[in-house]
Amino acid sequence: MEPRNAGTSGDLTSRLIENPTWTDSMVEESGIEVRDVPFVTVGGGIGSFVTVDYLRIAGVPTNQIAVLSNIDHPWQTYQYLTRVSQIPEPERIRSDSSSRPDNIWGFPSYALSEGWQDRSVRPLLRVLGEPIFSDYWTPRAGAVFASLERESARIAYPEMLVKGVVRMVRRRVGGGYYTILTPPAGTTATKRIAYRSRFVHIAVGYPGLRFLPDLQAFRETHGDFHHVVNAYEPHEHVYEYLKTTPGTVMVRGGGIVASRVLQRLMDDREKFGLRTEIEHVFRTFVTGAHGPHPWSRRKGGNGFAYQGFNYPKSVWGGQLKAKMRRLEGEERAAEYRRMGGTNTPKRRRWQKQLQAGRDAGWYRAYRGLVEEVQPGNRLTSVVQRDDGVQKIPSDFIIDCTGLEADIADHRLLNDLLTNGGAGRNPLGRLEVERTFEIKGTASGDGALYASGTATLGGYFPGVDTFLGLQVAAQEIADDLARRGWAPRLGPLRSTAQWIRWILNRPVEGSAQWSRS
After folding, report:
1. How confident is the model at residue 508 (pLDDT cuts 50, 70, 90)?
2. Same domain, residue pair 110 and 202
3. Which of 130, 201, 398, 507 is positioned for an S-S bond with 41, CB 3.0–4.6 A?
C-alpha cells in the first residue's frame, strides 16, 4: 500500500536547478530517491528501442539498462503519426525493404518476409525491378508494428521500461550523470526519481509540431483549430465533412505527407463519388530534374521533387556517408543543403490520380507564398504569386510542411543546451561526435549520447530514418565496447543471435559480461 504522502516529497531544489553539476550529497539532501543503473536511455521510441536491441543482442542484461519513457511501447508515437498523416496499417510507409528496426542484420528483409507469409514472389520481383520497372518496394505499416512487437518481447523490453517524464539530465561530480524522472502521480514515495548512471542516451524524437507562420497566427487569433489543421494532428473530421458536403481543401507542402493527404482526398473522391476540389500551394515549385551537375540530379515535375527515400541511398553506407564524416562546419552545412529539400516518392498511382485531377480541373497547383489567411464563411488565403496576388477560397487548410520545431522547444534538449554543455551543429541541432556522443557533455568516464532527428546536421545525414537509427545504435554500442562496458558483438555471437532471432527465441547472456 502506498504511503499517504506518496509522491509529495523528494523534489528538485533551487540548488539543484541552478547547478549544472551535482554531487551525491546535493541529491541526497533533496530527498529524491536514487536508483543506480549503468545505462539509461530517454525517450522510449524507436531510437531507444534499436539502441537497446543492439546492447541486448551483444549480451548486456536487462538489469543494466533503464528505458525512461512516457509511452507504453516503442512504436506508439510512430504509429500515431502514421495514422493521422493518412498511412493506416494496410498502407505502405516510405522505408527500404532492408531497413528493419526489429532486425539489426536486415535479413530477411521486409519483402522476403512478406513473400514468405503470402506465399508469393511478387514482393521479391518488385524489389528486383525497382525503380525502373516498378515503384520502390516498401513495407506495410502494420507489418512494421507487428515485427517491433515481436522483437520487444524477445529482448524483454518491458522489463527495462520505466514510465514517467524526464525533466533533465545533469552531470555528476566524479563522473556519470543524474537523470531526473517524474513518475506518474502517486506511484512512488517521492515526487522525482534520480537515475544515477555512467551512460545516458537521448532519443526523444521530434521536438514538436511546426506550423507555417501565417497558419499559426490565424489559429491563435481566431481560435480556429477545426478548419486549419496540421497533417500530424488528428483531422479525420475534414474527410468526414467532405463525404457529406462538396468542399475545397487547400494543401500546403510538397513532401511525402502532402502526397499521402492528396492520395486520401483523391481515393475518397473515387470511392464515394465526391466532388472535392483541391488547391495545392507549393512554396518551391519544381518543374523538372534539378541539381548541381549531371551526376547529382533529382527528378521533379508539376511542383514536386521526386526521390525514393528521405536521402540518397549512399548516405547509409556509400561514398556520401564517407564524405560527410570528413566535413566540418559550413562545408557540412553546404552538403546538407545540396542533398536536402522537401521531396516525395514518384509513385505511379499518385501520378495517374493527379493527372486526372489536372485534366478535369478539380486539382490546381500553384507556386506562391501565402501572406495571410482571412476568416469568413470560407477561409481565404492571400497568395503572392509570380503574376500577382491571388485570393484562394477553401473550406479547410491542411498544413503538411513538417514536424521539425527548434530543439530548444523541447524542455530536456533546452536544458542540455543551457546547463549540460551541449552545443548546436551547423543546422542548429545537437552537435554530436561520429560516435553520437554529444560534444561538450562528457562527465568523467561517462558519456552522453543522442540519436534521431535532434542530431540532424552531424557527420551522418540519415539520422531520422529506421536505418539511420540503427547506424547510430551500432556506433553507440561499438563506443560502449571500446570503453570496456558493453561486450563487443563479434561474428560468432552475431551469427548465433541471428539464428535465435529467426527462431524467435529470447536473447541469451554474453560470456563477456562480468559487471555487477
Report:
1. confident
2. no
3. 201
Dist. CA 41–CA 479, nearest whole Å: 15
- Model confidence at 239, pLDDT cuts 50, 70, 90, reads very high
Statement to judge: residues 282 and 376 lie in one domain = yes
Taking only the tens place, the pLDDT of each residue in 85-95 is 999 999 988 88
Residue 388: give its domain's CATH number. 3.50.50.60
Please check whether residues 347 and 273 belong to one and the same domain. yes
Nine cell digits for residue 104:
539489426
223 and 285 in one domain? yes
Cβ count within 10 A of residue 411: 13
Give the model's confidence band at 152: pLDDT under 50 very low, under 70 low, under 90 confident, else very high.
very high
Q: In terms of domains, do 66 and 178 share one? A: yes
Q: How many structural domains does the chain have? A: 3
| Within a domain: 321 | no
- Out of 103, 119, 139, a domain closes at 139
| Co-location of 28 and 177 in the same domain | yes
- In 3D space, the residue among 113, 111, 100 whose CA is nearest the CA of residue 53 turns out to be 100
CA distance 399 to 31: 46
State the DSSP code for 488: P
Residue 185, burial from CB neighbour count under 10 angstroms (0-12, 13-18, 19+): exposed
Residue 368 lies inside a defined structural domain of this protein: yes
Residue of 346 and 131 predicted with greater confidence: 346
In this structure, which amino acid lies at residue 394?
S
Q: Is residue 338 part of a domain?
A: no
Q: Locate cell 561530480: which residue?
A: 173
Confidence of residue 507 (pLDDT cuts 50, 70, 90): very high
Report the candidate in 198, 196, 167, 170 with the shortest Cα–Cα distance to residue 183.
Answer: 167
Calculate the CA 95 to chain-centre distance.
12
The 8-class DSSP code of residue 107 comes to -
Per the domain annotation, does 325 fall within a domain?
A: no
What are residue 14's phi and psi, to 5 degrees? -60, -35
Beta carbons of 289 and 300 less than 8 angstroms apart:
yes
For residues 413 and 392, membership in a common domain is answered with no
Same domain? For 236 and 280 the reply is yes
Mind giving me the DSSP string for 232-298? TS--HHHHHHHHHS--EEEEE--SHHHHHHHHHHHHHHHHHT---EEEEEESS-B-S-EEEETTEEE
Count CB-CB contacts under 10 A for residue 511: 9
Provide the whole-model pTM.
0.92
Expressed as residue numbers, the domain containing 197 is 16-77+146-207+406-503
